[in-house]
Design goal:
Layout: E1 2-6, H1 13-24, E2 27-30, H2 31-44, H3 52-61, E3 64-66, E4 72-74, E5 77-78, H4 86-95, H5 99-112, E6 118-122, H6 125-129, E7 135-140, H7 143-157, H8 165-181, E8 194-197, H9 203-211, H10 221-238, H11 264-272, H12 282-285, H13 288-294
Parallel strand pairs: 1-6, 1-7, 2-6, 7-8
Antiparallel strand pairs: 3-4, 4-5
2'-deoxycytidine-5'-monophosphate is lined by residues 9, 31-33, 35-36, 92-93, 96, 122-125, 175, 179.
């Protein structure tokens, strides 16, 4: 399952996407950070992105590694702390306007998500990178609230520096104008995107609105087979019964097993009669067979 979150800066894309990915136990990809990493690389190597021949050669030398704890490594150097600096923000917007660069990074982004589920955030993700995504979200917010969020973020990341809110607001506006009006894959909402205005919403409210859009998981063949066998065993040997089904409601829900027995989670799954996304401790997901069944 791929969930895309598009929208301009400061709408809460990253926080929302990260929380959603962790709640659903699926991967998270920040494509803006990929553009930022490339901007850092071009700056470091003194490459002019307008010089396509030189830029294309540089792209072949661009090797990005994203670690599990979200560090960005380029040419063996951890550049995570550089990525949010103003000059990188501006240059990332500049490099992102070149079609040959977008084409190359699109391949990298698709490669990152091949054969896995995830939440991908950016500015052309639902429209160009994953047009067939299962759920497409577009976040918006007023310019003032976006600038306020970015201001807080910067103050948190660089506590010893002063930032002017007005300055941030102006730069944000300029960058969003550039990203929305560029010829190649501009930031845009398409008719199949679900728009959420986050100006007056809490993170939890945004998450709930997105969770409501997630289609129910269809039982896969292997899952259904194990389900039927387990159902038979529990029914015959443990007199398995389900009470209180009338309290279930349509839409997303968190079903919590009490753990009075090791069988609780299994029986909870059997009671639901649909494929659930399982949240459990990390070590369970390290067993490949079990992980493929419960993920
Ligand atoms: O989301 P962000 O501020 O980290 O993105 C940095 C820049 O990268 C942004 O100005 C535009 C560009 N970008 C893009 O063009 N397409 C994406 N999918 C993500 C980011």
């Amino acid at each position: 399952m791929i969930i895309t979150i598009d929208g301009p800066s400061g709408t809460g894309k990253s926080t929302t996407a990260k929380r959603l990915a962790s709640a659903l136990q699926i991967a998270y990809l920040d494509t803006g950070a990929i553009y930022r990493s490339l901007a850092w690389f071009f700056l470091e190597e003194k490459i002019d992105p307008a010089n396509e021949a030189e830029g294309k050669k540089a792209l072949k030398r661009f090797h990005l590694e994203i670690t599990e704890d979200e560090n960005y490594i380029v040419s063996g150097k951890n550049i995570t702390k550089e990525l949010r600096k103003e000059k990188i923000s501006t240059l990332s917007s500049t490099v992102s306007a070149f079609p040959y660069i977008r084409k190359h990074l699109r391949k990298i982004q698709r490669g990152c998500m091949s054969k896995r589920s995830g939440v991908v955030e950016g500015r052309d993700i639902g429209s160009a990178v994953f047009p067939k995504a299962d759920v497409k979200i577009f976040l918006t917010a007023s310019l003032a609230s976006r600038a306020k969020r970015r201001h807080l973020q910067l103050k948190e990341q660089f506590p010893d520096q002063d930032f002017s809110l007005k300055d941030i607001e102006e730069k944000l506006d300029q960058r969003d104008q550039a990203d929305s009006t560029r010829a190649s894959c501009p930031l845009k909402k398409t008719s199949d995107m679900y728009v959420i205005d986050t100006t007056n919403l809490s993170l939890e409210e945004v998450l709930i609105a997105i969770l409501h859009r997630i289609p129910r998981k269809k039982m896969r063949f292997f899952y259904r087979m194990i389900f039927q066998i387990a159902w038979g065993i529990f029914r015959c040997f443990y007199r398995f019964r389900v009470y209180g089904k009338q309290h279930l409601f349509a839409g997303p829900a968190l079903v919590i097993a009490n753990h009075t027995s090791y069988f609780d989670p299994h029986m909870t799954v059997l009671a639901m009669k649909e494929e659930l996304h399982i949240l459990a401790r990390n070590t369970l997901f390290r067993q490949k067979l079990l992980a493929s069944l419960i993920l």
